[in-house]
Amino acid sequence: MKYLYTIIICSLISFQSLSQSQHTISGYVRDGSSGEEMIGATVTINELPGTGTVSNAYGYYSLTLPSGNYTLKYNYIGYETITKEIDLKSNMKLDISLAEEQLHLEEIVVQSEKPEDNVTDVKMSREKLQVEKIKALPALFGEVDLIKTLQLLPGIQSAGEGTTGLFVRGGSSDQNLMLLDEATVYNASHFLGFFSVFNADAIKNVEIYKGGIPARFGGRLSSILDIQMKEGNNKKFAMSGGIGSVSSRLTVEGPIVKDKSSFIISGRRTYADLFLRLSPNEDVNSNILYFYDLNAKANYRIDDKNRVFVSGYFGRDVFDFDDTFGLDWGNATVTTRWNHLFNDRLFLNTTVLFSNFGYGFDIDDGVQSFEWKSNLQEYSAKLDFTYFINPNNTLSFGVNSILHRFEPATITPGDNSIFIDFALDNRYALEHALYIGNDHKINEKLLIQYGLRYSIFENIGPGKVFLYEEGVPRSDETLIDSIRYDRLERINLYHGLEPRFAARYILNRQSSVKASYNRMRQYIQVASNSTAGLPIDRWIPADNYIEPLIGDQVALGYFRNFKDNTFEASVEVYYKWMDNLIDFKPAAEILLNNNIETEILSGKGWAYGAEFTVKKNVGKTTGWFGYTIAKTERQIDGINDGKKYNAKYDRTHDISLVVSHEMSPRLTLSANWVYATGQAVSFPVGRYNVDGRSIPYYDDLRRNADRMPSYHRLDLSANLKAKNKKNKRLQRSWSFSIYNAYARKNAFSITFEDIVNEDVNYDSDEDGPETSRRPGSVKLYLFSLIPSVTYNFKF
Asked: DSSP letter at 585?
C-alpha cells in the first residue's frame, strides 16, 4: 500500500484547490462522415502554449481552465482542423465533428497543423497504424494483413515465410497480448499462420506497445497489441467489400437510430475449397480447405452521459483431407461495454468480456480412428476510470478479474477403434489486477507518466497436484503421490507489483529525449517446440512448479523531426531481462502429458538492441525505413551445459523499407523490401549408421548455435481507383500486388537426410544400392513470385 500511496501523492503534486473561477470544457471528438468517436484527437489552446489534451480510447476529452476567452483547435491527422472560440464562464460540453481533408497536397506543401506527437508525446516504443495506409501496401495473395504490416516495424520480427507470429524485442510469440475490442485473441492465425484473423475492413484503430507500457495493461511480457473495431456509420447506410484471389469480403454498416445508434457487420471467407471441387481428380475435389471471419458491433447512445456497446468476433479454419484427416481451429470473442460520465472530469468504462480459443482434429482410419478437442476460455470483467484532474494531470485507475479455464485435451475414439476415452485434467485459475497511473506535466519541457499495477494469480480447484521425490529431477519415475482439491479451493497463489515509468524531455521544437521502465508479469504461456505458433499449441498456467514469467525493460530514445515535421526520425536502445523462462528437454512430450512439469526446465533470458526509424508521413511519397540490431539469449540449467544460448527467434539484423507514392489522385504505387538474419537453429554435427542408413547426430551442447540462410524479399503493389461518375455513390478500385517480386527462395525449413545421387542411372524405379545415396540437406521453401488482384467497392 505504501507504493499506492506514493502514486496518489505524486499524482496530486500540482493539483491545487480549484477555485470557483475555474471551469471544465469537455466532449467527444467524432468523425463527421460516420459519427464514430476518434481516438487520440489533439485539443490545443492558442492562448496557453503547451496546454492541451488528447481524446481517450473512447473519443472523450476534458480540460479544466480558469475563466476567460480561449481559442481551441481540434486536430487529427488526415482531417481538417477546426477552430472554436469560447467564452469559458461555466462548465461547458462541446462535441466536435471533424471532416476528412479533401485537398491533395503537393510534395512541398506541409500541413502546418500536423501534431508533433513523436517529439512531444511521452509515449515511446509505441507504433500506431492507419488502416488506410495498411490497405495500400503489398499483401500475400492480395489479403490485407495487420500482423504482416506490424512485422515491417523495427523491433518486431516474424517467425518465417508467411507466418503471423510476432516476436517483439526478444520475446516469444505467446508474450504478446492481442486485444480486439479489449477481448483477448489467443491465436491470431489463419491457414496455419499465413494470414491473420484481423479483417482490416472492420478495424478502426491499431496500436502496439513494445515498451513504456501503461499501468492499465498487463498479463504479457513483451508487447500489447490494442485493436479497436469500427462502431458503424450512425448517419447513413454504407456497404463495402472486395473480391480477391483467395477470398471475398463484405461490410455493411448504418444507423439503427440516426445519430444515436449504429451497427456494423463485416465478413470474409476464402474459397479454395470451391475450386478444389472443380478438379476431375476425386482425391482432390473431396478436400475442404477454407477459413472465415465475422465481426459484428452495435452501440446505443442512451444520453449524453451513457453509451453501451456490444461487439463480437467469430472465426474458424476448416481443413478436411480425403475424409481421413480433419483439422479445425478458431476464436470467438464477445465484448459488452458501458461508458459513463459521472461529471465533466470523471469517466468510467465498464467491460464484460468472453474469449474462447479451441481446436480439434480427427483421424478416420479404421481401428485407429479418434477425435481430439481442446479449448481455452476466459471470462473477464473490469472497471477503468479516467479522472481529468487539470491540464497537467490525468489520472487513470481501475480493477479487473479474469477466470481462466484450460481444457488441454479430450480424446474420443471412433467406432471399432483401438483407442479408449482419454482426457487430460482441466485446470482453472483466477487472475486479478488493480492499477493506478498518472500523466503528469511538470513544465513545458518535462512530462512524466508513472503508475503501479498489482497483479494476483491463483490456481483453483477442482484439480490435483502431483508430488515428487525431493532432491531429484521431476519425472514419471520420481512421482510418489498427488493431492486433490475441491471446486474453487485455492491450490497455489502468486502476486506482485509491476511499476511503470516513462518520461519525455523536450530539447527544442524539433527534438526530445525519452526514457521508460516497466515490469511485467505473465501467468499463462504456451508450451510448444514450434517457433511459428501452431494452432495446436498448448497454453499452460503458472502452478506449483511453473513460476510466472517476470520481465523488466529499460529503454532510452532520441526523437527528432526535420523540415517542419515532414520527416520523423528516432533511435531507441533497450535492455530487457527475464526470469522463469521455460524451455523443454530434448524430445519432450507436450500435448498428451498430464504432468507437463516433468518436461520443463526454467531459467533466465536477456534481450537488448537498438532500433532506428525514419518516417515520412506528408506529401505524395510516404513510408518508412527501419533497422534493428538485436540479441536474444537464454540460460537454463540442463540445456546447453548451463551456458547461454541463442533463442530460436534471435535475429541479429532486421531491415525494412516501405514506400508509397501517389502517382495521381487515382493511382498509388507501393513497395516494401525486407531483410533479416536467418533464425537460430541447431544443425547436426555428425552422423551415425543404423541398418545401413545414416542418421543425423545433434550435439546437446550446441543449442541454436547455427543459422538458417538470410531472408529477403521485395513486394510491389498498385492501387487504381476507377473513374466514378459524378453524383454516383459507388466507388470502385483495383488492387494489384506481387509478393516476392524477384522470386527469392527463402528457406522455410532445412532437413538432413539421405538423398539419391543424381549422377547414377538406374534401370528401374528403385533408388538403387545404398552406395547410391549420400548424406545431404533438403531446403523447403514455400513461395516464389505470387501475383494477385483484388476488386474493391464501396457505396
From this structure: -
Query: How much is the average pLDDT of 778-792?
Result: 82
Residues 130, 133, 137, 140, Cα dihedral to 10°:
40
Other Cβ atoms closer than 10 A to 173: 26
| Stretch (H or E) spanning 7 | helix 2-11
C-alpha cell at 789: 488482384
Q: Which residue has the higher pLDDT, 365 or 108?
A: 365
As a whole number of angstroms, the distance between CA 137 and CA 146 comes to 10
**pLDDT bucket at 727, cuts 50 / 70 / 90:** low
Instruction: Determine the pLDDT at residue 578.
Output: 95
| C-alpha cell at position 376 | 481455452
Q: Residue 652: which residues within 8 A CB-CB, separation 6 or more?
A: 629, 630, 631, 677
Q: By C-alpha distance, which of 791, 615, 619, 621 is closest to 719?
A: 791
Q: Examine residue 541 and say whether the peptide bond preceding it is cis (omega within 30 degrees of 0).
A: no
Task: Centre a 10 Å sphere on the Cβ of residue 254 and count the other Cβ atoms it contains.
Answer: 18
pLDDT in tens, 221-233: 999 999 999 999 9
Mean pLDDT of 586-599: 82
* Cα dihedral sign, 739-742-745-746: negative
User: Which residues, other chains included, contact 626 with Cβ-Cβ below 8 Å and sequence gap of 6+?
Assistant: 152, 153, 154, 611, 612, 613, 654, 655, 656, 657
Q: Which domains does the chain have, with CATH numbers?
A: 2-103 (2.60.40.1120), 227-742+785-794 (2.40.170.20)
Listed in sequence order, the DSSP H helices in 94-145 are: 117-120, 131-135
Tens of pLDDT, residue by residue over 258-313, are 889 999 999 999 886 666 565 555 555 567 788 899 999 999 999 989 999 999 99
Cα 125 from Cα 572, distance rounded (Å): 8
Three-state DSSP state, 432: strand
List C-alpha distances in Å: 145 to 136, 142, 694, 697.
11, 9, 43, 40
pLDDT in tens, 411-443: 888 877 787 888 889 999 999 999 999 999 998
Mean pLDDT of 614-619: 87
Dump the DSSP string for 730-744.
Answer: -EEEEEEEEESTT--
Q: Is the overall model pTM greater than 0.90, yes or no?
A: no
Distances (CA, A) of 279 to 8, 164, 273: 68, 30, 10
Residues pairing with 752 in the sheet: 777
